[in-house]
Each structure stands twice: as structure tokens, then as C-alpha cells.
């Protein structure tokens, strides 16, 4: 029987565990606080930010909601980030991407104090991750590590294939998989749009992480029997539904499930974990900044 890895349940257990750490901070007189900065009127970005804020409120993290007119000067965003860096009550800063074209996303990421960079995208935090000394693991790959662990899948000595090499998913995922640490020690291949014969790579993998953003591109023929399949993709495809679309992953779920030992669904797999790990990083940040040794 193929195990369907329940991301909602694992995310809930992460949130439950955070309650202890949040109590420890409260005992020391602190409320973890995340500032979200939105410089966009894209409905998807607005939805992501409001979901992050309600997630925070649900577990007892204070959410500061800052909105900047997308037509404003880039300087307004940098000034906002600088103020948040200086504000001792703010533990985590998240600038919702994408920012408008006239703002450099790289410059924004560098402007955030690395100790408050709960996305883990600042070059200092990327460097620490690569060096095996992560301060904040990026939320999606960290969530995937937790999902794999929850399914009782050992990564050590396994062959892993990561499809996608983005800075936010593919690269940090591959880095975590090769770390000399629990959840790592896998022999890892990173595939991308120039990879020759992707199917041959995935078919020989014990663990496949699909993060290409191409609807249902990985099907059962590309999966080894008993493999663990993690589907990161969130793709809107036209469908005969009320909204006129549905969300599908990068994996063709039914055919891959027939081969896999364990698989994540879309929705309800990686997505809820990404959200939970942002809360985790924010609580961790509060512990580090207030010098409270929280249980995480
Ligand atoms: P990007 O578009 O930044 O990166 C996609 C990567 O996939 C690139 O490295 C690209 O290769 C590679 N790729 C594209 N097409 C193919 C192909 N046909 N074969 C092999 N590789 C291919 O995407 P992200 O990493 O940001 O996101 C990936 C997916 O995950 C998206 O669907 C996104 O919505 C979703 N996502 C989900 C999250 C969650 O919480 N569940 C969080 C973040 C993202 P190249 O570098 O050569 O262009």
C-alpha cells in the first residue's frame, strides 16, 4: 500500500510543538513577531500574505502587516526594511516576492538583517546552509525534510533526484539532502530544463522531489517501485470547476502513486509544510534574538 503523506497533519504537529516554545518566550516576556511586507497588488501575493498572517495569529505569533504602493520608489521598501531591522520587537521580516520590476529582489534580500531573514534567502544564510551550519533553513525544503522524516523514510545512502534548481526550492533542497546530518547523507542529483533524459534519472531514484512548475510532468513510468515522491509543484490548470481551474502538482498523482512507496498529494502535501516552517523560523528567530533557549 502506498502511503499518502499527509502534509496537513504533519504541519499541525509542527504547530502544536511550537506552542511550547511560544510559552517559553512568553514566560520571558516576549511575543514572537513577524513583519510581512507586501509591495504588490497581485491577488496571489495578497492571498499568500494574508494566509501567513492568519497562520501567525493562530499559533500566537504577532503579525505586522505592512503594505507599500507598488508604484512607490524602491527606496520606500529599503527604508521600511531598515526600520524593521532596527525594531527590537520584530523578530522576522518577510518581503513577499515578486517585488515590482523597478525593485531589485536581490538587493531587497540583502537589505534584510540576516538574523531576521526567516525565509533563509539572505546570502549569509544561504552560505551557512551550504556550510552545514544553517541558521534558518528555507521553509519549503525544510518542510520536505520533515515530511520525509514523518513517513519514516531514511535518506542516508539513498539516491535522491531533485527536479528544479531554483534558489528557493531546488538548490536548498539538494543542499539539505547532501548534508552530513539527519535528513541528509543522500547521493543527490539535481535536474533542470537542460537535463538529458530526465526519466532515466528519476527512474533510478529512491527519493524524487519534483519542483519544476510543470503540471504533471512526472508520471508513473518515471518512478521506481517503492520510491518516495515529493510533489512541490502548485500549478493552475483549466478545469470544469466553479473557479474554472484546479490545482495540480508536477507529478501525475494516480500513475505515480501506483509505483511509489510514499507520495505527497497536491494540495495537502508540501504547501501546508512551507507555511508551518515559516512559523518555526519566526519562533526560532525570537529565541535567538531574545536569548531564550526555546525547545524546537
Ligand atoms: P522556478 O520556476 O524558479 O524553477 C523551476 C525549475 O524547474 C528550474 O530550475 C527549471 O530549470 C526546472 N524545470 C522547468 N521545466 C523543466 C523540465 N521540463 N524538466 C526539468 N526541469 C525543469 O520554480 P520554483 O522552484 O519557485 O517552484 C517550482 C514549483 O513549486 C512551482 O510550481 C511553484 O508554484 C511550486 N512551489 C510550491 C511551494 C509549496 O509550498 N508547495 C513553494 C514554492 C514553490 P532551469 O533552471 O533550467 O530553467
From TrEMBL:
Pathway: One-carbon metabolism; tetrahydrofolate interconversion. It catalyses: (6R)-5,10-methylene-5,6,7,8-tetrahydrofolate + NADP(+) = (6R)-5,10-methenyltetrahydrofolate + NADPH; (6R)-5,10-methenyltetrahydrofolate + H2O = (6R)-10-formyltetrahydrofolate + H(+). The keyword Transport does not apply. InterPro entries: Aminoacid_DH-like_N_sf, NAD(P)-bd_dom_sf, THF_DH/CycHdrlase, THF_DH/CycHdrlase_cat_dom, THF_DH/CycHdrlase_NAD-bd_dom. Its EC number is 1.5.1.5, 3.5.4.9. Keywords: Amino-acid biosynthesis, Histidine biosynthesis, Hydrolase, Methionine biosynthesis, Multifunctional enzyme, NADP, One-carbon metabolism, Oxidoreductase, Purine biosynthesis. NADP(+) binds at residues 164-166, 234. Residues 138-287 form the Tetrahydrofolate dehydrogenase/cyclohydrolase NAD(P)-binding domain. Residues 5-119 form the Tetrahydrofolate dehydrogenase/cyclohydrolase catalytic domain. Pfam families: THF_DHG_CYH, THF_DHG_CYH_C. Belongs to the tetrahydrofolate dehydrogenase/cyclohydrolase family. Catalyzes the oxidation of 5,10-methylenetetrahydrofolate to 5,10-methenyltetrahydrofolate and then the hydrolysis of 5,10-methenyltetrahydrofolate to 10-formyltetrahydrofolate. HAMAP family: THF_DHG_CYH. Homodimer. This is Bifunctional protein FolD. It comes from Haloarcula onubensis. The lineage of its organism: Archaea, Methanobacteriati, Methanobacteriota, Stenosarchaea group, Halobacteria.
